[in-house]
Amino acid sequence: MKMLSAIVFLALVPAIFLLSKCNTETQSGSAKADTTSAVASASSYGGYSTPEEWGHHIVTIAGCGDCHSPKKMTSTGPVENLDLALSGHPANMPIANVDRKEMESKGAIVTNDLTSWIGPWGVSYAANITSDSTTGIGNWSFDQFKLCLRKGKYMGLEKARDLLPPMPWQAFQNMSDDELNAVFLYLKSTKPIHNIVPQPLPPTQAKKQ
Question: For residue 49, is it within any domain?
């Protein structure tokens, strides 16, 4: 009887070992799959966890706030006013007090707060690109956003006017669809700020013609 029990035990040992190994491999495979999925997801978002985080990164390194965010003066110079981040040229802020005709004839460019610009093209104002639905891009579609940056069209409309300097859409048009989508999703997630940016002004010489 003891010999029979020993034989049965010895017969069960390989089975127990195989079942244990199978379970370990299954768990290991599941962990590898989860890791692979996480890596693939991060890779899809430029190494970030979400497209919004990736978009925030792109907006930051592209310097979008340099023009689209009003500034406040500090002891070390002007910095972005984060309370008004990406809300564009403040509606009630006057343009720089300069001789526009002289600036335009010399081909010079003058700015006030880095949100309004005077040059040979006239006067241009940085747009409100927050998620506000009436004065920002809150109601834009991704196709509009893509058309705006790919073709330099105001509000992303095919028959609209061209974007004015200093908006560097010629550089941004080289972004991939994934990069543009990440930026778009980030801007859609920003705090909505209601700010009606003035319409651009034509050159002084154009007024006389």
Answer: no
- Please provide residue 168's backbone torsions phi and psi, each rounded to the nearest 5 degrees: -90, 55
Is the Cβ–Cβ distance between 95 and 123 less than 8 Å? yes
What's the structural domain count of the chain? 1
For residue 33, how many other CB atoms are within 10 A of its CB? 10
Q: What is the pLDDT of residues 166-182, one digit of tens each?
A: 999 999 999 999 999 99
pLDDT, tens digit, 9 for 90 and up, residues 126-159: 999 999 999 999 999 999 999 999 999 999 999 9
Query: Which range marks the domain in which residue 192 is found?
Result: 55-204
What is the percent of the chain with per-residue pLDDT over 90, rounded to a whole number? 65
As a whole number of angstroms, the distance between CA 99 and CA 115 comes to 18
Whether 106 maps to a domain, the answer reads yes
CB 84 within 8 A of CB 90: yes
What residues does 71 pair with on adjacent strands?
80
Concatenated DSSP letters of the chain? -HHHHHHHHHHHHHHHHHHHHHHHHHHHHHHHHHHHHHHHHHHHTTTSSSHHHHHHHHHHHTTHHHHHS-EEEETTEEEE-GGGTT--S-TTPPPP-S-HHHHHHHT--EEETTTEEEETTEEEE----SS-TTTSSTT--HHHHHHHHHH-BGGG-TTSPBPPTT--HHHHTTS-HHHHHHHHHHHHHSPP----PPPPB--HHHHH-
- Asked, for residue 34, whether it belongs to a domain, the answer is no
Examine residue 163 and state whether it is found in any structural domain, yes or no.
yes
